[in-house]
Structure formats: C-alpha cells, structure tokens
Amino acid sequence: MARNQRDFYYRQAQESGYRSRASYKLKQIQDKEYIIRRNDTVVDLGAAPGGWLQVARELSRGKIFGVDLQPIKPIQGVTTIVGDITSEETIEKVLEFAGDAGVDVVLCDAAPNLSGNWAVDHARGIDLNEAAFECAEKILKPGGNFVVKVFQGDMFKNFYDKVSKSFVYTKAFSPPASRSTSAEIYIICKNFIATSLRKGDVYDVLIESMGNSGDGIAYIDNFVVFVPGTDIGDEVSILLKDIKPKYAFGKVISKEEADIIRQKIENSEKKDAKKPVKYKIEPDEEFDEYDRAFE
Ligand SMILES: C[S@@+](CC[C@H](N)C(=O)[O-])C[C@H]1O[C@@H](n2cnc3c(N)ncnc32)[C@H](O)[C@@H]1O
Predict the structure, then answer these.
(1) Cα–Cα distance for residue pair 232/189, rounded to 1 Å
(2) Which residues line ligand 1 (CB under 6 A)?
C-alpha cells in the first residue's frame, strides 16, 4: 500500500480514537462478511494494542475478551489478560471465560516477531494460526465465526483446507487497509460445524427416532443425522451428503456401495500419506513494521 494510503488509515485511526490502523481491517472484514452481530461474545487472540477490541465492542456490545503477550490498556466493557496463546495456561483462562455456553466469534490478528526471512516468518505465523484454530474449535458455539490472519507461503493451503472442513463457509480476504507489500491475508470462516463428521463419510447407523418432517434420525457421536426414507429401527448404510453446524443429512446406500466408498477413502488416505511434503524457500522480503502505529 502506498505510503500516502498508509497515512490515510493512520490519520483516520488517530482522528477516530482507534488504537491502531488495524481497526480498519476488522471494519472492512465486517462490511464484507458480517461476522460480528449484536450481543455476540467475542474472543480476540493477539489483541494488543486493542484496535480490534474497540471495533468488536462497538459492533457487539456483548462480552469481549482479549489476550496478548503485551498488556492492553483498559477498554470499557472489555476484559483482557496477558498471555501466550500457544501456552496451555493461557488457553485454560480463555476456556474459563468461554464457559459451557461457548463464544460466538474468535478473532486472531496475532503476528510473530518478524525476522525478515519469509519462510521462517511464515512458519512462525502458522504456529500461531494453529494455536488459534485449536482454541476456536474448543470454544466456538455451533454456527460461530472465526477470523484469522495468515502470512502467505507454502503451508497456507494446508491450513486453509484444514480450517475450511470445520465451517460451512470459508473465504480468504485481503482488506484494502492491509499494505500491498504485506504477505498477510485473512481467512474468514463462518458457521462452525461442531462435529468431526465430514461430507462424503460413510456410516452404518440405526434409526432411533423421527424428525418433524418425517425423516428418520440417527445419532453419530451424539450428532443428529437426518436420513430421508427410513423408519425407527432400520439399520442402514448412509453417505453423508451435507453437514450443517447442528445436524447433517445422510442418504441411504447399499452395503456394497458403502464398502466401495470406504475402500476408495482408504486408498486416497494411503496415497496422501506417501506424498512428499515440499517446502519452498521464498526470497527474503523486507516486512513493514506491523500495525503498532501508535499506542
Ligand atoms: C498486529 S498486532 C494485533 C493488532 C490488533 N489487532 C489491534 O487492532 O490493535 C499482533 C499482536 O500479536 C501479539 N502476539 C504475537 N504472538 C503472540 C502470542 N504467542 N500470544 C499472544 N499474543 C501474541 C503481539 O504481541 C501483537 O500485539
């Protein structure tokens, strides 16, 4: 991003009382994808100096919780702690905040200390991303949203593919307020699927009850799966056709079809395990200093 444009967000933030120009990135993400709703409970991982916390508080007015290695100056209506998001001790505190009810939104704009070496910084960034995703999986309500900043590089695709399996909708977005020289991009994930069941999986199930619309219902790991065309007591093989945050749909298939699909899944898993993992070292890149524009 050109210096005058950078100055634009810097000045805007100063004039509007935001603690960092990064506030505008979250505003632009919100304008595009509507991730925070009124009264949402929000956790922000890597939150200092607090620009995103300010925006989250404005949008939600609900309970907001921020974590950072650095202390965050108080913001009305926001709870903050000092902690490392890759440590169990910190995650325990986040879990305590989330309670049994869980939270609606997890944000992560955390950035590692940059070395200037693209490959090293990318790998450090992915470590933070993995920690944030693990935390999000533990605390998000079904249907919740997750936004995470990733530094692009070889491991981006793997991480993107992994998180996208846990949400109905996933998109990579570069907000205009990100600098054009920056390798950062945001993965926006909506509608958390609170189960490890995946579309295309095959199961043998017992139909235990009936739904209001007349579909049989099976339970897999306590997750509701609607199976059209079945009755209580039926024992059937099903192919999972669609996974929603709180339930799934399965289609009855024959035992023979189920065996063929299982065999195909097993073969493709074996093939994947044999694939060599490639790491490409990018040329060093000079990074702009991150968004600690002013504190
Ligand atoms: C770009 S800043 C976040 C800016 C923030 N979104 C805002 O609007 O003010 C990145 C933050 O990630 C934090 N961070 C980096 N590694 C961390 C870790 N392991 N645990 C917690 N915070 C971390 C840094 O201390 C830094 O404050």
Answers:
(1) 36
(2) 19-20, 22-23, 46-52, 67-70, 84-86, 109-112, 128, 290-291
SS3 119: helix
For the CA of 107, the nearest atom of ligand 1: 6
Which residue is associated with the tokens 């043998």? 204
Instruction: Write the Ramachandran bin of 265: left for phi over 0, alpha for psi from -120 to 50, otherwise beta.
Output: alpha
Contact 224, 195 (CB under 8 A): no
CB 200 within 8 A of CB 250: no
Which of 128, 178, 179 to probe ligand 1 with, by most ligand atoms within 8 A of CB?
128
| pLDDT tens string 135-168 | 999 999 999 999 999 998 999 999 999 999 999 9
- Report residue 219 as tokens: 């339970």
Domains of the chain (ranges plus CATH)? 3-192 (3.40.50.150), 202-270 (2.40.50.140)
How much is the pLDDT for 287?
31
69 CA distance to ligand 1 centroid (A)? Answer: 7
Say what the pTM is: 0.83
Cα 64 to Cα 257: distance, rounded to the nearest angstrom:
49
